[in-house]
Write the structure tokens for this entry.
Amino acid sequence: MEQTKFKSVEDALLIDLVRNALEAIAKEMSIIMLRSAYSPIFSEGKDFSSALFTPEGYTLAQAHDCPIHLASMGFHVKQCLREMGGTGVIDDGDLMISNDPYSGGSHLPDITVFKPIFCEGQLVAFAANRAHHSDVGGWSPGSFTADAEEIFQEGLRIPPVRLIRRGQLQEDLLAFVLRNVRDPESMRGDLFAQIAAVNHAEKQIKSQIVSRLGLNALKLCEAPILDASEAMMRREIAEIPDGIYEAHDFVEDDGLGNGPFEIKVKVAVRGDSLEVDFAGTSSQARGPINAPLAVASGATFIAILTMTDSKIPVNEGCYRPVTIKIEEGTFLNPREPAPCVSGNTYTALRVIDTVRSALGKAIPHRATAGNGDHLQFLAGGFDPQKNNAPYSFYEMPTGGWGAGSHGPGVGSAFGLVANCRNVPIEIFESKYPFRINRMQLQGDSCGTGSNRGGAGMFKEYELLRGTARVTLASDRQKLGPAGHGGGGHGNPGLQVLVQDGVCHTLPGKISDIVMKAGDVIQLTAPGGGGWSE
Amino acid sequence: MEGDMSAESAGRNYAGVDVGGTFTDVVAVIDGELSIAKVPSTPNQALGIFEGVSGIAPVSKFDRILHGTTVGTNALLERKGGVAGLITTSGFEDILLLQRGDRASLYDLSWNKPDPLISRDFVVGVDERVGADGEIVKALSLENALKAVEQLIEKGVTCIGVCLLFSYLNSRHEQLIRSIIEERYTDVFVSISSEVAPEWKEYERASTTALNAYLIDPVRSYMRSLRQALSQAGHERDFLVMQSNGGVLPSEKVTALPCVTILSGPSAGVVAAAEIATKAGFKDSLTFDVGGTSTDICIIENGSPATITEAEVEGLPLKVRSHAIATIGSGGGSIARVDDNGRLHVGPQSAGSYPGPACYGRGGLQPTLTDAALVCGYLGEDKALAGQLRLNKATAYSAVKSVADRLGLDVHQAASAIVSFAVDKMAHECRALCLERGRDVREFALVAFGGAGPMFAGLVAEKLDVKRVIIPSHPGVTAASGLLVAKLRYDVAHSYSSTLAQADPERMDAIIADLEVKARTALIGDRPNSAVTYVHTIETRYAGQTHEIEVPITRTNPVQLNEVAAAFHKLHHDRFAFAFPEKAIEFVAIRVAAVSDEGGVGLPAIRVREPYADDSLLKSTRELAFVGYRGAADVLERHSLSTNEKTAGPVIVSQYDTTTVVPPGFNLSVHDTGVLILEKN
């Protein structure tokens, strides 16, 4: 019988087989996470991500999870490795955790777990999972302090540490972490779900790739997988006309009365590479709107991914043609101990929009007008009808997306940093002493143009009983998302408290408003900008 | 099987008819004998059905005709439903447009939400409000409601869906609106959400109600014409239609509830697979149904197909009890291409059934998975597919060559690479589906059917390290045979939101009693003597979780809450590998399914002679190519195999409606029940 083997590794097919397997494994990690995590934030909010990395910390494959996590996790893995003294000090069976934005993390509630994968004594990959935990201590429950002035108020900082050493769980370290958070049981459950996810990746890399295709197949494919995506990305960039494209936009305030904070960006397209320079961006804020370098860079990558062929397999190769320059001390690369819990919400959204706007001048067919943010409305209190049981919730009325040459903007959808789902009214009213009087598309909120922007959501909440303390953490309340070409701006958002028949317009970011029974909060999310040639 | 047959159905003549895109399959039992037929599907499906059934015996000879239909599904996919309107609580008219705010694509900003089936101009609000405890907060204004109805009538609607907030707790306003419409407009059909999907989550309920209203026209007129055709030919009894839940209902009932038929065909296949695998001794199996454009997979645990209470079609949520079928975008017609970056892709584009793969010789030029299989020798050109379609290896060869040239491979290498890519994708999805249920795919046997399932199942099993593959006797007509074992079934639900500590076990049993009456009435209506069994489940979760587990209970009054809790902890542990016995538990919904044995007759365990069986070719040989292997292998005719032989792969088994590939490393044997078993060495 004649036996025919595929030629060798340079064969593009093996690379694709390995890549497909790695992508499937990343996806499986997220299935494991979703099915074993305890907190609802993971199943409804999809606020976690899984990815695989090369031994150098380069993203190799990722699941279809939370974009801002995925685009910034590589920074965390790389910086943790640097801080720990390189891969030489890591052993088979170790598992690291960290959440510190100043070690490459995003914000403190996001804890990243990563595990080195060894085969036959050689380090072949890292598996990492990042998840937003419901509480990591600090000033306020949920560790989302709208008026923090230092990161120390935002919760427990975990530098890169080994939670598991050569297979041994470090119980004392875990006890220390759990002692510092408000819901230790949830955190324990969720951390173990993260660990289960990276353990699954280790097992599958061994059984699906190494034992079937050989250790060499994996090692030899890693570089070409990144190179292939890099080549695809370079081909995309080469089609963008050379030039320098600028844009600017604002985060309106930092929640402490300071602002606006300007994001200035200059995107230089030279051949098949891009340089994104944020020179001139405002200095770091006193309030928590600062985006750590990893988050600002991640947001920049998201912008670029949305402006190029969405079928390119996303990995570190996509990022190689891009140089990002952000001066330290700006609110997109703050110095310790600046607070940064909100950095990966509206600040990241604004970075995405600004970079997209600059690049859109070069490739209008891929551009869209400015996107409306989702609003953030947090409230809590005690429900008199339920024996004064405490409750709290986090609502995010969704804005409209900007229109593009492809058509009108999507009405009422989550901002690009995440991909959450809103809570059904019938579930919401069953749990909380509020009634939703109206929920509709705010038809006139969208920018005009030959293609109209998407409409933002209007939602009216009436408190039925007791009192509630309310925090609003929203931006785009003064400046609507820009139109493209001759297209009109989307309307800015509007947050109104109706108390005793009097309407009070509220600022974007405000803490500790007290609502009483019969009071109404009307939230209008911004509409998307319109598009015209 | 005799034991499963009710007295009524024994010795009766039944026909199961499954209509697919290309073929209409009929499996009939007449006097205990099985017959099968495959005829081309017709644009008016009723004609093909009539032809297929009559080909076996006169329609009047059948006591029951059971039907898997795609009329509703096609109307949805092609957006050819009726002119429907929707009435909502005022202030929530945008509900179908708002959806849930998430997106299907992370980075593609040209994405947009799926278009609602009922456009915004056809949605009107009425002044009314029911509160979260089911109390009427604002009474319905009849005048205002009439105005809303008239507005829709002026637009020419023939069906109106009504979905008001919290109607699953208090349906009075929805009922009132229905009577307003029915009193004045007798030819307008009304579908109210408290009947279609009486459960919380307003968008999902509205979407389901809208879908139901949208499908009523096409489904009603189709059912009517089929009933007429059958009755003119002397078949007086109402035919039964397969639902997404694996049970059948009389067509008269389905006419008012077309949303239950969306997975009609695929579900019939799953029912058959569960029956076949269980009889062959496999309690846990994974269905593997490969068609022209896609592959459907579904987990069968302990003999029962996994079900879900909310499905999704075309991005639209559908709150209908359905088999938990996952669809993979790879099938026999999936097109292989090399992109500008030199990457090979197989699917999701498909050559469809027309022109179909290049080897069909009907003008298709792009290489498909079927063409690759032909080049690899899995298919032969000497025998016609389903006795009707001859394959052309030369056109397959030249189509695959275009891909081979781009990749710098020879044609056989390229063909086995195409197969390998498709098989990898199928394997990844099978593993992921099992993981989602907390199971290891290696614990399952694959049940392979559909025209192309048996061709790829062995290769997928090999990738997954799955030890056994089951090939039913007639893989190409599995869905039709599933109709013969399906039972009458009706599912009802009631939202019940409470923590276990605050639950009222007597009230819960009262709800169950109501649901039983509701389900029984829908199921057997005026035949009070029919035997009905009930399946009761309570959707349960830990307080704060958002995914529920359905806990089966035995009915007692009051409901034994401690038993529910214990069962829940155990199920949670089985599925997710952990449980929190000390954590608070909450209930979400109570569900009852009524099942009557009335329905199919079961599959007789006799092997029938196939049509088109060709005795001149009992054994031949072909050159086969796999990744890393090329060589000659035997091609055996299935009807020539006997139960006491074991044959080592590689070997091909050929039969009228499919081809089975036994890869190297697998042994082939024939089980007593007639199914083929592929077993890993």
Chain B touches chain A through 72 residues (CB under 8 Å).
